[in-house]
Amino acid sequence: MNRLDSRLAEIRRADRKALVTFITAGDPTPDITVPALHALVRGGADVLELGIPFSDPEAEGPSIQAASERGLAGGMTLRKVLELVSAFRKQDRHTPVVLMGYFNSILAMGCERFAVAAAASGVDGLIMVNLPPEESAPLKGPLDEHGIRMIFLVAPTTTEPRARMIIESASGFIYYVSLKGTTGAGNLDASAVGDKLRWLRGLTPLPLLVGFGIKNGADARAVSRFSDGVVVGSALVDTMARQSADPEAIPQALIEQVREIRRALDQPSA
Amino acid sequence: MQGANRYDQPSAGHFGEHGGRYVAETLIHALDELGDLYDAAKRDPEFRLELQRDLEHFVGRPTPLYFAERLTQELGGAQIYLKREDLNHTGAHKVNNTVGQALLAKRMGKPRIIAETGAGQHGVATATVAARLGLACRVYMGAEDVKRQSLNVYRMKLLGAEVVPVLSGSRTLKDALNEAMRDWVTNVDSTHYIIGTVAGPHPYPTMVRDFQSVIGLEARAQCLQALGRLPDVLVACVGGGSNAIGLFYPFIDDAEVRLVGVEAAGLGLETGRHAAPLNAGRVGVLHGNRTYLMEDDDGQIIETHSISAGLDYPGVGPEHAHLKDIGRAEYDAVTDDEAMEGFRLLNRCEGILPALESSHAIAWVMKHAADLGSDQTVVINLSGRGDKDILTVAELDGIDL
């Protein structure tokens, strides 16, 4: 069974909320990524989302754009991202890893070659920011064949017929984009998210995870009242950027930050 | 607005394997709405009349098809005609599209317009129509381009637009497009994004091509009237490719008419310092569509170079990618130096100051006119005027204005 599916099923059985953490591969340097991933798990992350740096990250806010630029400046490539996942897997055979990026990175490698290499590295899922289901067939076929989940996004602007179509193609979980904007934006409205999630619940049994604009434990807790979990990205990336002069300190800073979010998510509801 | 023909389009928004809609989910609904509204508008006689009126009275169409007699003599071959898009209001073909899209924004009731710009011509054309309709306007422009196109930056400000220098990535047109997409995804309810070329997600490549097709429709009628037949060769510069597709499209079914797109070879295709994805790129996905791109082995978009800011873009409209694949159009490239020769020649022998973009098309004809022979007729799309480029050219000449 796919690590991502079993982890999310486990969390649901335990009546917990999933915490997905995002960092960008190679940010701020290639050698920090694997220790950082382990630190995120130690802090309480259930699923790791790892960004593939891309030259033109058009859906990202300033934090993740800068992370992408730092990763590229350090020589990160898709091949090296997969090597980092392999290195992580030597010590952690259980935590699901989902790659996030832009379709051109995959196209340049070739969809089939990517699927084979990603499965061999221990990748469990893929989020392609700019690949809606209509255009996804050339990639989804190979991913399905190699047991990698293709995760699709649903946005506040997605209509019902479209949501049904996306759900048809979806696997792993539904990534609900909490707001109209880029990653790390400041206009999160938890109650609006709640309405949308109740609606989506009626359409699919897949886990619903919410991302964009969730910065801390309080945001995570507010949104997780309606969702099966949250994705936290820019806030962690900002921490790494702040620590980039002293990369040794990054893992500990991440552990503490993730613990705070974890505690808020695990707090019994009043 | 529409020609008779349509070559094979596997589905709406696709041109062979190119085109499509590769964007964040948040934007899909806005693209659907825009596509539906545009489809309805182009069938609506009232919209067509309104557009035609604006093109006539505000833009100043039709533009002349001008016989360049001295240029023809000088080059000693084909009969050379210029389609004078430089005579449009605001000085380039860009306004054909912005006038149309502004009318659509008005129909959608969206009070705010955004645009990206490279050379600044599209930014000026957008700021112009926004001013005229009383819409708020923000233009994203790479910080590098802000520096090299200061005249157009000031023009946009005079027109009441806010010009935002983009500091991310390579700080040029592609980064301005990324930033405009980010703005749009954030303000999608209130804002219409006027993309300036025949690239981007569906429906943009089709819609912008339709608005620009007025160039080819006029040229076709003007040729029939002046020559009693169709021209033999059409030549246009290609960055994103909106002026070229505008000229080519109404001739697509006329198999005997040769279509030549001219990309920017910059310092030379062999140097890698150019902006010629159709000549030396490969197929990828950027800015919402699948097309030929300048990229490295890892799929990272690489920095392009052209003397002309308007051609300095790593992608190209998906319809051009398809026309190349099926062999209906041919795509060549000329260097910065060759474009400069074209620029100087047109000034000297026709009294016309062309944009550096359009100078690429002139340069191609300089190289090939003699081979074509005097029985052949060539139409060059003179897509814009060169006032904006005077500082660049003066600098090359070592003159400090």
Overview features:
heterodimer; A: 270 residues; alpha/beta; TIM Barrel; eight-stranded parallel β-barrel; 12 helices; B: 401 residues; six-stranded mixed sheet; four-stranded antiparallel sheet; 45% helix; globular
Care to give the gist of this entry?
The complex is a heterodimer of chains A (270) and B (401). Chain A has 270 residues and is α/β, with parallel strands linked by helices. Chain A is built from twelve helices and eight strands.
SSE topology:
The complex is a heterodimer of chains A (270) and B (401).
Chain A: H1 3-13, E1 18-24, H2 33-43, E2 47-51, H3 62-73, H4 78-89, E3 97-101, H5 103-109, H6 111-121, E4 125-128, H7 137-145, E5 149-154, H8 160-169, E6 174-177, H9 190-201, E7 208-211, H10 217-224, E8 229-232, H11 234-242, H12 250-266
Parallel strand pairs in A: 1-2, 1-8, 2-3, 3-4, 4-5, 5-6, 6-7, 7-8
Helix pairs in contact in A: 2-4, 2-12, 4-6, 5-6, 6-7, 10-12
Chain B: E1 14-15, E2 18-22, H1 25-43, H2 45-59, E3 65-67, H3 69-75, E4 79-84, H4 94-108, E5 112-117, H5 121-133, E6 136-142, H6 143-148, H7 150-158, E7 162-166, H8 173-186, E8 191-193, H9 204-212, H10 214-227, E9 233-237, H11 242-248, E10 258-266, H12 277-280, E11 282-286, E12 288-293, H13 318-325, E13 329-335, H14 336-350, H15 356-372, E14 377-382, H16 390-396
Parallel strand pairs in B: 4-14, 5-6, 5-8, 6-7, 9-10, 9-14, 10-13
Antiparallel strand pairs in B: 1-2, 2-12, 3-4, 11-12
Describe the structure in your own words.
The complex is a heterodimer of chains A (270) and B (401). The longest helix of chain A has 17 residues, at 250-266. Chain A has helices spanning 3-13, 33-43, 62-73, 78-89, 103-109, 111-121, 137-145, 160-169, 190-201, 217-224, 234-242, 250-266, and strands at residues 18-24, 47-51, 97-101, 125-128, 149-154, 174-177, 208-211, 229-232. Chain A is 48% helix and 14% strand. Chain A has an eight-stranded parallel β-barrel with strand order 1-2-3-4-5-6-7-8, surrounded by nine helices. In chain A, 56% of the residues are buried. By secondary structure, chain A is α/β, with parallel strands linked by helices. In chain A, helix 9 links the parallel strand 6 (174-177) and strand 7 (208-211). Chain A contains twelve helices and eight strands. Chain A has a single domain (3-266), classed as TIM Barrel (Alpha-Beta Barrel), CATH 3.20.20. Chain B has 401 residues and is of the alpha/beta class. In chain B, 45% of the residues lie in helices and 19% in strands. Chain B has helices at residues 25-43, 45-59, 69-75, 94-108, 121-133, 143-148, 150-158, 173-186, 204-212, 214-227, 242-248, 277-280, 318-325, 336-350, 356-372, 390-396, and strands spanning 14-15, 18-22, 65-67, 79-84, 112-117, 136-142, 162-166, 191-193, 233-237, 258-266, 282-286, 288-293, 329-335, 377-382. In chain B, the strands form three sheets. In chain B, strands 3-4-14-9-10-13 form a six-stranded mixed beta sheet, sandwiched between helices. The radius of gyration of chain B is 19 Å and the shape is globular. The mean pLDDT of chain B is 95. The interface between A and B is large, with 43 and 39 residues.
